[in-house]
Amino acid sequence: MVRALWNDEAGFVISTELLLVATILVLGVIVGLVSVRNNVVTELADLAGAIGALDQTYGFSGITACNSGTAGSAFTDATDQCEIADGTNGGDDVAITVSPANGQ
């Protein structure tokens, strides 16, 4: 009976093929998730750049009519982390760099 079990190779090919296919699938999923991660980080960097580029400066002059009037008001946008002193964005996604793990 031990000899019969030792010589039985009925499931060997199927399990080897299953192991090979599972390994290829896992490697493919890992590569796909890395690609998704890089694209999500890039999109979030684009969103951060768009929010940072919003001009928050506003102002209006005073209004006077008959016996009433209002004073004007103004607000100047402060320089954000990635902005140059003139209020422009210092470049596309200056503070965020996405690069492959091998440094290329």
Please, could you describe this protein's structure?
This protein is 45% helix and 12% strand. The chain is α+β, with helices and mostly antiparallel strands and 104 residues long. The strands form 2 sheets. It has a two-stranded antiparallel sheet. Strands 2-3 form a two-stranded antiparallel ribbon. A hairpin with a 2-residue loop joins strand 2 (63-65) and strand 3 (68-70). The model has no long low-confidence stretch (mean pLDDT 76).
What is the domain tally?
1
Q: Which spans of ≥5 residues are poorly predicted at pLDDT below 50?
A: none
SSE string, helices as H and strands as E: HHEEEE
Biggest sheet statistics: 2 strands, antiparallel
Counted by DSSP, the helix tally is 2
Shape: rod-shaped
In the sheet with the most strands, the strands line up as: 1-4
- Residue share in helices? 40-55%
Radius of gyration: 31 Å
Strand content: 5-15%
Q: How many beta-strand segments?
A: 4
- First CA to last CA: what distance? 58 Å
Task: Please state the average pLDDT score.
Answer: 76
Structural class: alpha+beta
